[in-house]
Amino acid sequence: MREIKAEIISVGTELLLGQIVNTNAAWISQRLADNGLSVYYHTVVGDNEQRLTTVFSEAEQRSDVIFITGGLGPTEDDLTREAFQNISDLPIIYDQATLTKMDQFFAKNNRQMTPNNLKQAHVFEGATVLKNSVGIAPGIIVEYNKKIWVFMPGVPREMKAIMTEEVLPFLSKQFKLETVIRSRMLRFIGIGESQLEFELKELISNQTNPTIAPLASEGEVALRLTAKAKDASEAEQMIDTVEQKIIKIVGNYLYGYDEVNIEQKVLDLLTHNKLTIASAESLTGGAFASSIVDHQGASILFKGAAVVYHTNSKAAALKIDSELLSTHGTVSKECAEAMSSHVKKVYHSDIGISFTGVAGPEEIENQSVGTVYISICAEDNTFYTEKFQFNGDRKAIRNRAVKKAYELFFNYLKE
Questions:
Q1: Which residues lie below 8 Å from residue 350, measured CB to CB, with a gap of 6+?
Q2: Is residue 299 a contact partner of residue 273, using CB atoms and an 8 Å limit?
Q3: Which helix (H) or strand (E) holds 409?
Q4: Does 99 share its domain with 228?
Q5: Which of 361, 362, 373, 413 is the most buried (most CB within 10 A)?
Q6: Structurally, how many domains does the chain consist of?
Q7: What is the pTM of this model?
Q8: CATH number at residue 140
Q9: Are 63 and 7 in contact (CB under 8 A)?
Q10: What's the CA gap between 265 and 255, in Å, rounded?
Q11: 156 preceded by a cis bond (ω within 30 of 0)
Q12: Per-block mean pLDDT, blocks of 10 residues, the chain (415 long)
């Protein structure tokens, strides 16, 4: 059976300006995946009739079902119907049920209905009108040139109601949907995207169903496993099988699933092990501490932070021997370990972590830009210290140092 290609078009200049986040497309995609429909394209277009018409024409050529949200309101810049009429020549008429609903709404609220509000009752002749249980403007389904067009309001609450109550039942009958699509995200740290692909080369090369898609982000990488099956249980079992094969190869780098991030994972491990931490930060300037307190539960495990950016502050705040600093320098293993052990003592924490290095723009103590030392002083005063060479500008180097610290913590705590 030929796979049905779906496309989502979100209409609104406010989306392009970033004034509103386009959550509608993500929500619709998830609902369609739950019902076995694959979305091939997401498009955002402003309130411009010519551009809307062009986008609709392109969608008609490549997709079987096109979902449009937005542009169905009463104002002059709501041009979705007009743009579709340009490619279909379908007459626009009033839906009597919607007109009646509008009359009742305005009468109930003691408001005068202005002429432009009537536009919300416009539908295409011969279309299936979709009831809007939480708003005024109805949804519309048009079957034209063997393609199905679904028009819905851009207001998320109204769109979700129409999609759930009207559109999905229609599509289920229309296409006799008997499959679901399920995805799972596997999150890894300590291994690069290219290395991960190399280790899993055979699995990725032979993928069919489920599919395996690597996704890289700053300092970590993920694999999205996607399965299509007759029901959710079968799809999950298919994903489980592939996941186990992946874990046998690179499971040592796996830290979590789906929406879990490495920061929350480390905090969970610290909480589980009833460990407290404190940080001493030079080049990161408190960024690690800030990332900790961004998460709930930080007050239980985070004792405090010393931002010791200047050489003198390392001696003054942490009582680090000035002779050590003059002998080895502030950008050194010795300094990093002194910082992590002393901050642990100062704040009476179980673990201390420190950051020192060169964020740029110029080298320090004959150390090149990007040189970073991170040290963990464990409960038994054992040190886990590593030297790194990061690329990028000041902000990138500092961000990478913080991310790398979470990687070091994860590897330490999972053992």
A1: 275, 276, 277, 344, 379
A2: no
A3: helix 394-414
A4: no
A5: 373
A6: 3
A7: 0.69
A8: 3.40.980.10
A9: yes
A10: 7
A11: no
A12: 86 94 93 87 96 97 97 90 96 94 88 88 95 92 96 95 94 78 92 93 92 88 91 93 97 94 95 96 96 91 96 93 94 98 97 96 93 97 97 94 96 88
